[in-house]
Amino acid sequence: VLLSNLASELNVLANLLKRIARRSWRSRDFTLADLRTALVAIIAHLPVYRTYVTASGIGEEDGRYLDWAVAQARRDHPQLEGSLFRFVDRALRADLPARASGEYLPQEVLRFAMKSQQLSGAVAAKGVEDTAFYRYNRLVSLNEVGGDPSRFGISPAAFHHMNLQRLSAHPHALLTTASHDHKRGEDTRLRISAITELGDEWREKVFRWTRLNRSKRRELDGRPAPGRNDEYLFYQMLVGAWPLGVEAGTDTGFVERLVAYMQKAVREAKHRSSWIAPNEDYEAAMEGFVRGVLDPMRSRAFLTSFAPFAQRIARIAAANGLSQTLLKLTSPGVPDIYQGAEYWDLSLVDPDNRRPVDFAVRQRSLESTEAWDELAARWHTGEIKQRLIARTLTVRNRDPELFMTGRYLPLVVEGPRADRVVAFARCAHDYSLIAIVVASRLNNDLLADDRSLRLKASGWQGTDVELPPESARLHYSNVFTNDEVRGAARLPMEALVTRYPVALLIGQAT
After folding, report:
1. Can you give the pLDDT at residue 499?
2. Which of 33, 30, 43 has its CA nearest to residue 82?
3. Peptide bond before 351: cis, by omega within 30 degrees of 0?
4. The predicted structure's pLDDT at residue 247
5. pTM for this structure?
6. Is the distance from CB of 129 to CB of 121 less than 8 angstroms?
7. Which CATH code for domain 400-508?
8. Which of 61, 91, 113, 381 is exposed most, by the fewest CB atoms within 10 A?
């Protein structure tokens, strides 16, 4: 990417660096080619989008990022002199000495450092998000803006640690799970992530689907079209965005969305097509494959196999989605809800995630007086998610100090299912006002057998949430169900989340 899409910007930066190098006898012998090679290697290895260098210097953390990038670049290019890497490193830090003889001009060096920061951000966005993330398709829910495909989730303990750090350093920073620029909607991602809860079955299904859809593939230049990697991406996206309540193959709008998505995906990957040089034959083969696979007349066996699996995944993801939404709305920070994400957000990459939103429908459901149980029974509409958001935001609006400045207390969970629970308290006014947040995770084998979002009471036996002594004396009300809960040193999970995967208890001294 740096040598092709951004070659012009790279050449400008390399020439500026060469001009700086010529100002001192210590660096004037460095060739433009070597400076360019070192610069490319360092930027390519930078583990963050950019560093932040100003006239005041570089921060300690950014300095460590540069240390690592330079070390990796030197390892990759042992033929280049160490003095050259030291020069480029100092230039990137705006730390070249301005001696009395006027060897290096501070403003010129600072200009180089700041322009390099602008370029490194573009390289990360174009090279990682818009290229690598479309090639490395192991589990594409991890391939999100700012994400790390090698990080398969975190433990509850790590989650609490990050929240405590956020409360200390950035208590009012944005908390978002969807935006105009995401690769997949927040609930699309959760569905794809839910595949990991059915890993063995998923592997068997994919092998079966590739056999069933063999006739939909073509051969181009001796290779299948679509290729295996693109086909595997397609199955993940199909699971992630599969429309609920629609008979398989009858949603023509969904087919068109998938066709457009896969065309963009193969161009971004730049393997067998690209924006600069579109491969019309390969893209036509991909479109024919998508349309053929989703045609009920041609793919009855596939759709009969796929639809029930997609429904199971959707239910698991819906339970996980309620948990994710509650955690976002109650963790340290300012929650942001992207347009339309009040319901299940099953959008794809832009422009799909910028489609018009039917706010009139959302307004009507927001004003509905239907009971929580009724909304939960038809969870596929997404109204249950909207109700959770509305009630939680009502609590935040009523007691803003509880979530904006209140303490964050990780709660100890003990029992055989302790690793399935994220629980914490937000406290204000010396514990006279407290919110207990409980969310279940990895919900597949905890869900009841009635196709609802209810959890099995038997799944939580022996698993308890411990309350801090100051809060055990309070009386609590469940924001979602209006159930009254008497405070105690330990609250059994089956009393908190049997009906639903989440609980928000508000306790107040009487």
Report:
1. 82
2. 30
3. yes
4. 52
5. 0.91
6. no
7. 2.60.40
8. 61
pLDDT in tens, 183-234: 999 999 999 999 999 999 999 999 999 999 999 999 999 999 999 999 999 9
Nearest to 225 by CA among 289, 298, 300, 311: 289
List Cα–Cα distances, 172 to 166, 167, 258, 323, in angstroms.
9, 8, 37, 21
Helix (H) or strand (E) holding 284: helix 280-293
Exposed e or buried b per residue across 374-400, where buried means at least 16 C-beta atoms within 10 angstroms of its C-beta:
ebbbebbebbbbbbbbebbeebbeebe
Judge if the upstream peptide bond of residue 296 is cis by omega within 30 degrees of 0.
no
What count of Cα atoms within 13 Å lies in the side-chain half-sphere of residue 51?
29
Round the CA-based radius of gyration of the chain to a whole number and report it. 27
Q: How far is CA 498 from CA 81, 97, 472, in A?
A: 65, 66, 21
CA atoms within 13 A on the CB side of 277: 5
Cα dihedral 305, 306, 312, 316 sign: positive
- Amino acid identity, residue 126? K
**Residue 8: which region, alpha, beta or left (left: phi > 0; alpha: psi -120 to 50)?**
alpha
Question: With a cut of 70, which residues of the chain have pLDDT below it?
Answer: 99-102, 245-250, 510
Q: What are the phi and psi torsion angles at 426 (to 5°)? A: -115, 125
Going from the C-alpha of 267 to that of each of 229, 270, 288, the distances in angstroms are: 14, 5, 16
Q: What is the distance between the terminal CA atoms of the chain, rounded to a whole angstrom?
A: 63
Tally of CB atoms within 10 A around 471 = 24
Q: Residue 126 burial (CB < 10 Å; 0-12/13-18/19+)?
A: middle
Measured CA to CA, the distance from residue 260 to residue 268 in angstroms comes to 12
| Residue 430: how many other CB atoms lie within 10 Å | 9
186 CB burial (10 A radius; 0-12, 13-18, 19+) = buried
Give the Cα separation of 454 and 79 in Å (integer).
Answer: 63
Give the H or E element holding residue 220: strand 218-220
Name the phi and psi angles at 423, rounded to 5. Answer: -140, 135
Name the strand (E) or helix (H) holding 57.
Answer: strand 57-58
424: phi then psi, degrees, rounded to nearest 5: -155, 170
- Kind and range of the H or E run holding 412: none
* DSSP labels, 299-356: -HHHHHHHHHHHHHHHHHHHHHHHHHHHHHHHSSSEEE--TTTTS-----STTGGGS-
Longest dimension (CA), the chain: 82
Q: What is the C-alpha separation between 3 and 146, in angstroms, rounded?
A: 23
Q: Quick one: which H or E segment has residue 37?
A: helix 32-45
Give the chain's length. Answer: 510
**pLDDT per position as a tens digit, 481-499:** 999 988 889 999 998 987 8
178 is written with which tokens? 């969807």
CA distance 226 to 419: 40
Residue reference for tokens 């300690």: 60
Measured N-to-C along each axis, helices 383-398 and 359-366 cross at an angle, to the nearest 10 degrees, of 70
